[in-house]
Amino acid sequence: MIDACRRALAEISAAEWVAVVFAFAYVLLAIRQNAWCWVTSIVSSAIFLALFARAGLVMQAWLQVFYMAMACYGWWAWRRGAEQGGELPVSRWPLGRHVAAITVVAVVSLFNGWWVGRSAAHGIVPYVDASTAWVSVYATWLVARKVLENWLYWIAADLVAAALYWSQGLLATAVLFVAYAVLAVRGYLQWREDLRRHGTAPPGGALA
Question: Does pTM surpass 0.70?
Answer without folding.
Answer: yes
